[in-house]
Amino acid sequence: MSERYFPDLMPSPGISRESLPWWEAALEGRLVVQRCTKCHAERHPPAPCCKSCGSHELDVRDTAGTGVVYTYTVVHQKLIPGMPEPYVVASIELDGTDGLRIVSNVVDIDPSKVRVGMEVEVVFEKMSDELMVPRFRPR
Ligand SMILES: [Zn+2]
Known about the structure:
5-stranded antiparallel sheet; CATH 2.40.50.840; mainly beta; binds zinc ion; 1 helix; 8 strands; 3-stranded antiparallel sheet; single chain
């Protein structure tokens, strides 16, 4: 059982045909980025075709699951029922990529202590049997 950070009532992400492999990897506890099998360009979030060569031949590759806080905001408003605020929404620059960033949450830390450049690692939150959502915590 993974640790829980957000309530069950939190809206589920929209899962598209392009993002399905990404979410399937997350369900296995793997943080991946989309990769073009022709020119090897990588991107996040997943898209229908490669932005570099236009190919539709895409797969995913595992990342280290680590990164740094590129930027963040602390949410103090009650936007989601049952959500204890304040909480952190951050853009995380993923290690071992060409500057790819993912929007997520920083957890396991007092929001007032989060800083740009802070080193973080992924932690997967099991929202249901079908959904694991990557969050990040300090490392
Ligand atoms: Zn390509």
